[in-house]
Amino acid sequence: MSARSLTWQLCLRLLPALALLVAAAVWLGERWLQPAWAIPTALVMAVLLWLAVHHATAPLRSLMRALAGLTASYCDGEFNVSVHWNGDDEIGELARAHMALGQVLRDQRQDLVQRELLLDTMIQNTPVAMLLTSPGGDGADRVVFSNLAARKLLHGGWKLEGQRIDALLATLPVALHDALARSGDSLFAVPDEDDEQIYHLSRRRFQINGRAHELTLIRLLTNELRRQEVHTWKKVIRVISHELNNALAPIASLAHSGAELVRRGKAERLPEVLGIIEERARHLEGFIRGYARFAKLPAPQLQTIHWASFLENLRLQMPFEHLTVDPELSSRADPAQLSQALLNLVKNAHEAGNGKHVQVSVEVSRQQDWVRIAISDDGSGMNEAVLHNALLPFYSTKRDGTGLGLALTREIAEAHGGRIALANRAEGGLCVTLMLPLQGS
User: Fold this and answer.
1) Considering the domain boundaries, does residue 120 fall inside one?
2) How far is Cα 92 from Cα 98, in angstroms, rounded to an integer?
């Protein structure tokens, strides 16, 4: 409400009193004055009354103008203006409420500025390159925001804001250009003078003020991957050293014992000693062969596999139960690799009872464009820690385990374009699920 409108509202509220006053003035004028002076006297009194009201409401109108200006300042984001009113009436309460609102907005603005400063400092100093893009007025994607890491990686440290993405891509190395040009997340390598740098790229899309934006994050993974590679090699060396020591120490001891038996002329025990040496040597040979197989898994040679006959052939090598399989269900896979993977899973399932008899079943079914192979047992299952690490190479809870069985099965599944998952069954035991493409990778 404007100050002028407020004055007229007050005058309208005083209209009945004004009318009564005019009527009284007319009556008094007719009685005490000449009739010709009655109406002019009433008009003069009405004007004087309006002037008195206008003068009385001047401070209030001034306050209303100040409050209107204050509200306009709030809308413009300016919170340093305030008003003051002397008095404890309703108008004073309104003025104090506006001042309190201004103080709250000032505090919030200061807090927001500090948060924005902190966020900008963190974003600018993070080693992850951050690039925010949005379609411009010409329809071409342009850079809206970039941090220091993005400027160094993509533009030699120069400003990127406002540049067209297609023009920027034309100046980048081939690997980086291809990674940014294609959609989705990716892992790529950029050659440099001495080595190559490995990066991970991820994208996220969202709306800002009704406009589509895309945030691209590029993270350098070279150092982290090298640390993981060193850690893995150390673990491999520890496992191999452990197995070699477990095999070579008995062989050396038994060879010494055999030599002593020959020296003493007790050759009748030599076959036993040589048999143990042969057993330990074959165990070591199998261990080395397993590592070589895992390290040099060849690309799968895809053939059509009919699951009904394929499972019957597997049962001849290792027993298990299976539900009826659709005789028409088939896949494109490498028979040798798939047999190795499934036999390994069935063998693990039989060993899940720790010496007790375990019921093992294999169920094969079709789920849309996938073939689902579920190997279930009623053993003891796995705890959460083992479930989390079971598919990692060299991880094993068995005393004589190499930690390569499940890892090799995972490699075979992924080489076929599939995946593997482990989960404890509600009724007890473990279920290992292989998902393979229906028509092969």
Assistant:
1) no
2) 10
Residue 312 in contact with residue 342, Cβ under 8 Å?
no
Whether residues 400 and 335 fall in one domain: yes
Q: What is the mean pLDDT of residues 418-432?
A: 87
CA 333/CA 427 separation, integer angstroms: 32
Separation between Cα atoms, residue 148 and residue 151, nearest integer Å:
5
pLDDT digits 0-9 by tens, 216-261: 999 988 877 777 767 767 776 776 776 677 677 777 887 888 888 7
Closest CA to 151 of 179, 175, 132: 132
Q: For residue 16, count other CB atoms closer than 10 A to its CB.
A: 9
| Beta strands, E only, 182-293 | 186-191, 196-208, 211-220
- CATH code, 202: 3.30.450.20
Residues 330 and 417 grouped into a single domain? yes
pLDDT tens track for 269-292: 778 878 877 877 776 776 677 666
Q: Where do the H-state alpha helices sit in 78-216? A: 90-125, 148-155, 165-169, 174-181
**Band of the pLDDT at 36, cuts 50, 70, 90?**
low
